Amino acid sequence: MTTTDRADAPADVRRPDGAPRPLPLPVAVAMAVTAGLALLLAFPPYGWWPLAPVGVALLVAATHRRRLRAGAGLGFLAGLALFAPLLSWTNLHTGYLPWVLLSLLQAGYLALLGLATAWVSPLADRYPAVWPALTGVLWVGQEALRDRTPFGGFPWGRLAFGQDGSPLLGLAAVGGAPLVTFAVATAGGLLLTGVWWTLRVRRVWWTPAAGCAAALVLLVGGGLLVPVSTTATGDTVTVAIVQGNVPRLGLDFNAQRQAVLNNHVDATIALAGEVAAGTRARPDLVVWPENSSDIDPLRNQSANIRISEAADAIGVPILVGAVLTGPEQGQVRNAGLLWRPGSGPDLEQLYIKRHPVPFAEYVPLRRIARMVSDQVDRVRADFVAGTAPGVVRTPAAVLGDVICFEVAYDGLVRDTVVGGAQLLVVQTNNATFDVAEARQQLAMVRLRAVEHGRPALMASTVGVSGFVSPDGRVSDATGFNTQAVVVRELRLTEGRTLATRVGVLPEVVLAGLAVAALVGAALVRRRWGGRAG
To answer: Which whole number is the average pLDDT over 413-426?
Structure first.
């Protein structure tokens, strides 16, 4: 017998067949849509992070005790309300179809979450104390699946990435993004459990409700107390970010590839002039963004000369974001290439992007994809994935380089730190997107800095660029669609946080508990005749 099947349970929470009653469907629909919008507002550019647990609580309440198809439908509605506006930057220059398809795909994962939440309802009813943790592990399980499928997954919209201003961000140093997501979802579960006790139980309710509130406060406040187990080395590095800007935003920004390269060269030479005049500090390293040279400087003599001109003027190495031809005919590579003054490209310090973006940098199943939209043919050459982590060794510091969306993938960033990176570098090109996408990406950089206890920076062609300290604070953030050069001295760190040491283990454990919860709910359903479902 479930908790609400007792004789003293309120009659209005039971259906005629004796099973506990879910919320009225119109109410549940409204709550699911509101849940998605609340989750949306937690992310940049809004940044109202306390709404994330509220959104989680609303979605759980809407799907609790529903039949499985209804739970999936409500999850899908919440997913559309979240992902359609969150990913609206994908339709700015590509038309509506990619945006619609991507939003529908991502909403499908929240449909699975809604179905799973409905499925475990009997377990939550029978053991209310586990309801918050149950909510947390199901969210982590959903994100673990969404981050990997299909074609390597698309982690945008993880709960953790909406907590860049939250006390919960500190938990990233313990268990990375999965632990932050678990904490946010568990906070939503605690909020819901407290309300449930208050509204549904006739007996004395204030003790469990107060307990849920206390647990919620401890959970949120606990993130502030997490020590970042890295220490400053005493060494510093002065880094310049050159944001050269592009002639025009959109997919055809690289139609004027020489102009983009010239922008970055000219801005670097201007910086060299300011250094010589004593108005700017001399950097130890200059970072250019992704696609700052879409002309292969290893094959194009003009591009080679121009980049060498910039490196010789500033007198320090430049990390160049370059598109390289090959290795095979019809293939290209997205690279971070160290360019030294006096000697040019250092091919020993070359990072090739390991996770090219499907349907943007390469087209899987091209023949089938063309039947959906001939826009896929705008990707004329497929980008080839690299195989080695982005560990780039410069005279000033060891860099952990990831390119653009790679910052969203836990393992790609961790591999650089394990390989010795002292400074995390994200080279990106936001010229085909907007400022909302850029700020969402910067939030991920903040989480990575805390997760691994490393200073970090993001260098963008058009903005937003900036520096991030190991505690997640942003400095010298640039504007969008403008040329800018920012220079900052950063203190390097050594050692590894717990999150760096344990890697994927927290996600494996939490996702495993989600599977165990699904199995446990099946046993409860079998034993009690599937009631409350």
So the answer is: 97
Catalytic residue among 143, 212, 361, 404: 404
Going by C-alpha positions, the residue among 335, 302, 334, 337 that lies closest to residue 318 is: 337
Out of 143, 212, 353, 451, the active site residue is: 353
274 is catalytic: no
Query: What single letter denotes the amino acid at residue 308?
Result: S
Q: Using the structure block, give the residue that is written with the tokens 């149950």.
A: 134
Residue 210 structure tokens: 């107060």
Six-digit token string for 247: 């002639």
The yes-or-no answer on residue 309 being catalytic is: no
Report the alpha-carbon distance of residue 255 to residue 516 in Å, rounded. Answer: 52
Residues 6+ apart with CB under 8 A from 84: 99, 103, 107
What pTM, to 2 d.p., does this model score?
A: 0.91
Query: Between 224 and 176, whose confidence is greater?
Result: 176
Q: In angstroms, rounded to a whole number, what is the distance separating the alpha carbons of residues 454 and 463?
A: 22
- SS3 (DSSP) at 153: coil
For 156-225, the three-class secondary structure string (H helix, E strand, C coil) is: CCCHHHHCCCCHHHHHHHHHHHHHHHHHHHHHHHHHHHHHHHHHHCCCCCHHHHHHHHHHHHHHHHHHHH
Question: Is 353 annotated as catalytic?
Answer: yes
- Cβ within 8 Å of residue 381, ≥6 positions away: 330, 331, 332
For 411, counting Cβ atoms within 10 Å of its Cβ (0-12 exposed, 13-18 middle, 19+ buried), the class is middle
Closest CA to 468 of 400, 405, 420: 400
Q: What is the pLDDT of residues 299-332, one digit of tens each?
A: 999 999 999 999 999 999 999 999 999 888 889 9
Q: Which of 143, 290, 437, 451 is catalytic?
A: 290
